[in-house]
C-alpha cells in the first residue's frame, strides 16, 4: 500500500491512495501519472499524482560496488542457469525445441539484477543473444525465438547508434569480443546445418520447411547487422547460402554416385558432378527462395 498526495490549483491538498499487490508489480516497476478526482460532488477537486515504485533487494547505500563487466558476467551466468533449467523442464514435458520464453519469476529476477547494476537494454540484448546462441548449438531453440533475439539485438544496437553513441564503446571491448564469438559460432553452426539441409530439412516435410524458412530469415537478419559487416567481412547472405548448398550438392552427389554408379571413371565423374551441381544448385536456389519468402507465415 502506497500513500501520496498532490497539490491542486486551489492551493489545497488532495489525499489519495494507490494500492497494488506486490505480486502484480511489474519487474521494471511503475512510473506513471494518474488523474484523481474528489468523490464528493460538492468538492470539484481534481489533481494528478505521479507514482514511481521499484522493488530493490537491498538499501541503495548498502549496495556493493560491482563493475560493469562483473555485473554483465553475473547476469549472463544467472540467465544461463534459468535457460538450462527451464529448457530441460520443457523437454521433459514432451517439447521438441525450447520456445525460448522464461517464466515470470525468472524474468523478474533478471530485470532486478539488470536495474540494480545499471545495465542498459543493449547489455541485456547482447547477453540474451550470447546465451540463446550457445544453448541453440547444444540443444536447440525454436527458430522463431532465435529470430526474435537477433532482431532485438540489431534494434538495440541501431537505437544506440542513432543517439550518436558508438555501441562498441558503450558496452566495452570485452562484451564485443564475447558477442563476436557467439556470432561466429552461430554462423558456423548454420553453415553445417545448411550443408546437410536435405537430411535436416526434408523437402517433403512441411514443419521442416518452416524451420528452414526461419533459419534463412535469421541468417538474413544476421548479415544485415552492421557489426557483422565491419568485423566479419567478405561474405553476404547470398554467398553464404550458395556456398552451403554447393557443398551439400557435391556431397550428396558423391554419395549417390558411390551407391549406384561405381563403374564411372574419374574424368567422367568430374564432368558429371559439376554438371549435376549446376542443375541441382539452380533448383535448390529456387527452393531456398521459396522458403525465405514464406518465413513470415
From the N-terminal CA to the C-terminal CA, the straight-line distance is: 46 Å
Oligomeric state: single chain
* Count of individual helical segments: 11
- The helix-and-strand class reads mainly alpha
Strand order of the largest sheet: 1-2
Averaged pLDDT: 76
Largest sheet, in brief, is: 2 strands, antiparallel
Strand percentage: 5-15%
Low-confidence stretches: 1-12, 263-268, 292-297
Count the strands?
Answer: 4
Round the Cα radius of gyration to an integer and report it. 27 Å
What shape does the CA trace take? elongated
Short description:
It is built from 11 helices and 4 strands. The chain has helices spanning 68-92, 104-116, 121-138, 143-162, 167-171, 173-194, 197-200, 206-224, 226-231, 237-260, 266-293, and strands at residues 2-7, 13-18, 30-37, 46-53. Helix 1 (68-92) packs antiparallel against helix 2, helix 1 packs across helix 3 (121-138) and helix 3 runs parallel beside helix 6 (173-194).
Summarize the structure in words.
The protein is mainly alpha-helical. Helix content is 62%, strand content 9%. Strand 1 (2-7) and strand 2 (13-18) form a beta hairpin. The radius of gyration is 27 Å and the shape is elongated. Mean pLDDT is 76; it is low at 1-12, 263-268 and 292-297.
Labels describing this entry:
two-stranded antiparallel sheet, 11 helices, 4 strands, mainly alpha, elongated, 297 residues
Helices, strands, pairings?
Layout: E1 2-7, E2 13-18, E3 30-37, E4 46-53, H1 68-92, H2 104-116, H3 121-138, H4 143-162, H5 167-171, H6 173-194, H7 197-200, H8 206-224, H9 226-231, H10 237-260, H11 266-293
Antiparallel strand pairs: 1-2, 3-4
